[in-house]
Structure formats: C-alpha cells, structure tokens
C-alpha cells in the first residue's frame, strides 16, 4: 500500500466517524514556547483538554484527526536502526469531550484489523501508580473485542505526557504489531488524558510535580506513520518504505533521515544557528555531512521528490550553505583532531561540537575528558557573562547576530506603534529568538491591514535611512526626563544604560570615555530611546526588510505582534 493511500485512508476513516480533518501544525510550536519542536500530534491541541468548549469554537467539532509532522531528536544515536527517525509523521485522532475509551479503542482496533488487515500482536494497559488507578476499563474493552488478545500491564512507559513544562497527560493503551523481521513494534499509542500535570514529565517522574484530575476525559492518539507503513508494506525497516529511497547502510539511513528532518525544519522557517532550534538543525545537517562523502545535493533532490504534492519542501540552499561551511571546518578540525584531542580547543577554535568530537573519538577508540571540557566551557561562559552583565534582560533568548538585529528592530517597532497608532502605547512583554521577535503591547483594538502596513513602512524607512544606534550611560533622572521607554515593572539603578536610535552620527560613542561624557544624547534626532542593556547593531542599515507576520490578541486590551527580518 502506498504511503499516500494510508494517510488518506486514516483521515477518511475518522472523518466518517465524526472527526474534522485539521492540517498539520508547524514544526515550530505556536502556543507552547517550552518545547523546541512539535513532537506529537496533540501539541497543537493542548489547550482543548482543559477547555473542551474552545474546540467547538475553533473547529466546530469535538473530535479532530490529523497527520502531523514531528521532530524528535532525543534518540538521535538510534537513528539508522529499523524504527528510529528524527523526522516522522504521526497519525492521530483526538477528542475533547466527544468520546472516551470505548470508542477510542474500538476505532483503533477496526482501523488496524479491518482497514489495514493487520494482526495485533499484543496490547498494553497501565498498571496504576499513586493516584492513577490500574486501567481495568481498557482491559475489559479489549477483552470484549477479542477474548484471546494478549493484554500486558506496564508502568511509566504507558503513562504519557505532559509535553513541555506542564499540560494534559494520562494512562495509555499501546498497540504492537509484528514487523517483517518477526519483532514486535509499538505502532499506536492511545492516550486517555485524564490529568493535568503542573510540571514537566521529568519533574513528575521525580515526584516534584502534581497531577490533578481534568474535568473532561480527553483522547489523544499517536500512530507513528513510518513504522505503520513498514508493517503494512511488509518491509523490514522504515527506510525500505516508499517515504525513503531504500537506504541500505546505517550511514545512508542517517544521511537520509537528517536531510529529511532538515528540509522539513527549514521549510517551517528555521535557519541553522548556535542555539535552540537553529542548533538542532545545524547538528542534523553537520551529522549528515559527516556521514556523507558525496555532496548532499542529490539526496536532497530525491527526498524533495518523495514528498512532491504532499509537503512543500523548499530552501535547500540553507543546507548547502551549512554543508559548505562545515566541510571546511571538518577539514581543518580533522587535522587538529588527528594531532591531539582537546575537545575545548576543537570547539572554540574549529567549531567542533562536543558530540562530534565524542563521536569521532568513539570511532577511533579514544577517550575524551568530558569533565575537563565542561569545566573549561563553564569558565569560558563565566567570562563572557561577566562581560555582558545586565544584557539580554529584555526577553532575548540567545545572542546570535540575527537575534541582535531583531532586538534593534524591536525598538523600532515600539517607536513605530507609538508614532502611527497611538503615542501612549506601552510594551507589556517581549521575547526574541533568532527567528522572530514578539512584542505584547497595550492597545484597545485589532490593527487594520492599513495600520500594519504603515507600521512596517515606518520601520523599513528607518532601516533604509541607516540610523546610528548608540548606547549611553546616564543618571536615571536624566533618562526619565528624556522620556526613555522603560520596561514595565522593572527597577532601575541610579545610573542606567539607554539606547538611542537615530542619534547624530558624531555622537557615536565608540570613542574614548572623556569624549563620551561631553556628548549630549539630545543633540541627535533620535526616533527611539529605550532603557536597555543591549546588545544592538551599530546602524539600522544592518537590518534587512522588516515584516509583521502576525497580529493577534493575547488578553483583553493586549495585542501581540510577531515580526521577522526577511
Ligand atoms: N501523544 C501520543 C503520542 O505521541 O504517542
């Protein structure tokens, strides 16, 4: 059976049983900033388990079905075996107060046995722990369906969630089928979201988070698409299915998996970087490069073709750029690696990530002193932190160049809103990643398209003007007199750091301290003054085109803008 046929079969099966088909969410989670990537189908629906009526408001339905793109890199070392992938699709049906265990289990059984003609090898149920009882109800439902079925009890593995820092979670029942090697593979996880956990899964496992009962039982199921395909197509591993191009060696499989994951991540707007999502992407591309003697171009093309008409995968240029850089790094670093193996020097001078050094060392049977590396890194970080005390307070998640540009754009945006919309607009929260900036601000109405356009134009005009961005330390009182923008609720010392955009070029404070003192910040024609620790670009010319991606409400009287530099 072809992959697309199974995707459609799944969606249609649940559609005909009262589910609304919802498109896959982005791999970059929208609502939940505590997770880097979308790792499960339920993530885009998290809020509905606590507020089921909102599902009716948003989807006109209590039950929905999706084929969700997912990234999981926790098991990256196992990628290349028969079942592990860093990018995969997940088939899932979800209910927010529409149905419970009986329907969820029956639908799954019917789909697996009647629609796909597969044989279930066994199922699991939760054995109970703490306030969560043994799942006798699921056992009885399975028994009624098939009295000969092998039903096994399990513990922590069959309690699912929450994702991120808190959220719905609950006991599960899993379905296992045999693959062509005769091994049992878990293919479907049916979660009964009956609890809300006030901490992460890690905290829950350590006894540091609490469960409380949700008012409404929710259903969340996840079926790994590639694993299912392998079984349905009678293949021995996921790389032999038609969402791959039959990769034979472990190396080829890793390359194919990593390129695929990278293409999907890039298509959702992430670029390689040194932190967060950008770093995961960089690591995937670099690993692919490392395992591949050939340029990646051919494989990239093959993978794009496999998904033609199903997913739009573009921007492979980002992979090729990173590949080029990293092949050069590799060449230099490898020479250094052969000479000695100081992981810290390899990292700081040659850009060798620790895991790469460790992988190389493992292949060559060499020991690396990780403790020494960690110690040196900690010292290194302490030094750079001391150099930037007080910086990055204003919601910056990390420090790379794009983040710094977005930080400056953030100041321009606030000034634009005050100039175009209302001079009294105040900022109420901000967050900047290397991909976008986000600003919450007080405003009593939804911005019109015309207003958004005017704000964009204003910011872009200031970018084009090439205005200097200047930092000055001054007494708090003086800064207040100038009307510098303050962070809401922040307490400031007597002497503060203030950033001016558009001050006259001659007051650029790059010079010596004496000159700094004698310059008047008011001499220039600035468009923005903010209390801020920086860092910022030196001149607005360093920013590319500013674009508002989204404008929405976050609470009564508070709007949120997400914007990018394209
Ligand atoms: N949310 C269910 C799963 O990912 O297995």
What do you see in this structure?
With 566 residues, the chain is of the alpha+beta class. The protein has helices at residues 3-15, 46-50, 53-59, 101-115, 136-145, 201-205, 225-232, 250-267, 276-291, 297-306, 317-339, 343-350, 354-364, 370-386, 401-420, 449-465, 476-481, 513-518, and strands at 20-21, 63-71, 87-96, 120-126, 151-154, 159-160, 167-178, 184-197, 211-224, 427-432, 437-442, 468-475, 495-503, 528-531, 546-555, 558-565. Strands 1, 2, 3, 4, 5, 6, 7, 8 and 9 form a 9-stranded mixed beta sheet that branches. Strands 10-11-16-15 form a 4-stranded antiparallel beta sheet, with helices on one face. Strands 12-13-14 form a 3-stranded antiparallel beta sheet. The structure holds glycine. Glycine binds next to strand 8 and strand 9. One of its GO terms (cellular component) is cytoplasm. One of its GO terms (molecular function) is tRNA binding. Belongs to the class-II aminoacyl-tRNA synthetase family. This is alanine--tRNA ligase.
The low-confidence parts are 385-395, 504-523
Structure ligands: glycine
Output the CATH homologous superfamily of the largest domain. Bira Bifunctional Protein, Domain 2
Number of helices: 18
Q: In CATH, what is the class of the largest domain?
A: Alpha Beta
Rg of Cα set = 27 Å
């Amino acid at each position: 059976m072809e992959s697309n046929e199974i995707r459609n079969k799944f969606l249609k099966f649940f559609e005909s049983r009262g589910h609304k088909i919802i498109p896959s969410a982005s791999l970059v989670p929208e609502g939940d900033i505590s997770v880097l990537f979308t790792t499960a189908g339920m993530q885009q629906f998290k809020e509905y388990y606590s507020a089921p009526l909102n599902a009716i408001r948003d989807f006109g339905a209590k039950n929905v079905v999706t084929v969700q793109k997912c990234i999981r890199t926790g098991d990256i070392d196992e990628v290349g075996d028969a079942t592990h992938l860093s990018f995969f699709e997940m088939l899932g049906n979800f209910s927010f107060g529409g149905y419970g265990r009986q329907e969820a289990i029956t639908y799954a059984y019917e789909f697996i046995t009647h629609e796909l003609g597969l044989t279930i090898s066994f199922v699991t149920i939760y054995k109970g722990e703490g306030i969560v009882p043994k799942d006798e109800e699921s056992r009885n439902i399975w028994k009624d369906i098939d009295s000969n079925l092998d039903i096994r009890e399990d513990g922590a593995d069959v309690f699912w969630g929450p994702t991120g820092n808190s959220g719905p979670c609950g006991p599960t029942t899993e379905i296992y089928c045999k693959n062509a090697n005769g091994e049992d593979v878990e293919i479907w996880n049916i979660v009964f979201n009956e609890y809300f956990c006030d901490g992460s899964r890690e905290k829950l496992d350590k006894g540091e988070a609490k469960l409380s009962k949700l008012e409404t039982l929710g259903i969340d199921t996840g079926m790994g698409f590639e694993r299912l395909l392998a079984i349905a197509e009678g293949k021995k591993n996921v790389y032999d299915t038609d969402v791959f191009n039959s990769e034979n060696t472990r190396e080829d499989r890793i390359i194919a998996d990593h390129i695929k994951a990278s293409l999907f991540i890039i298509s959702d707007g992430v670029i390689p970087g040194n932190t967060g999502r950008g770093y995961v992407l960089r690591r995937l591309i670099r690993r692919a490069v490392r395992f591949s003697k050939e340029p990646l171009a051919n494989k990239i093309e093959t993978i794009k073709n496999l998904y033609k008409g199903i997913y739009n995968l573009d921007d492979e240029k980002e992979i090729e750029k990173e590949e080029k850089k990293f092949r050069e790094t590799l060449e230099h670093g490898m020479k250094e690696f052969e000479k000695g193996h100081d992981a810290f020097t390899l990292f700081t001078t040659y850009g060798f990530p620790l895991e790469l050094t460790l992988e190389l060392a493992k292949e060559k049977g060499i020991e690396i002193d990780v403790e020494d590396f960690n110690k040196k890194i900690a010292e290194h970080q302490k030094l750079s932190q001391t150099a930037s005390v007080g910086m990055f307070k204003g919601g910056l998640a990390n420090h790379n160049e794009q983040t710094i540009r977005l930080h400056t754009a953030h100041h321009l945006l606030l000034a634009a809103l005050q100039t175009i919309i209302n001079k009294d607009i105040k900022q109420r929260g901000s967050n900047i990643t290397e991909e976008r900036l986000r600003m919450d601000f007080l405003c009593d109405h939804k911005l019109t398209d015309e207003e958004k356009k005017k704000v964009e134009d204003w910011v872009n005009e200031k970018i084009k003007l090439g205005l200097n961005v200047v930092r000055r330390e001054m007494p708090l009182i003086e800064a207040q007199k100038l009307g510098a923008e303050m962070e809401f609720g922040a307490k400031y010392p007597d002497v503060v750091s203030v950033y001016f955009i558009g001050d006259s070029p001659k007051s650029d404070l790059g010079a010596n301290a004496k000159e700094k003192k004698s310059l008047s910040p008011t001499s220039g024609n600035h468009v923005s003054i903010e209390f801020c620790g920086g860092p910022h670009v030196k001149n607005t010319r360093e920013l590319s085109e500013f674009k508002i991606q989204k404008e929405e409400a976050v609470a009564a009287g508070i709007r949120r803008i997400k914007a990018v530099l394209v």
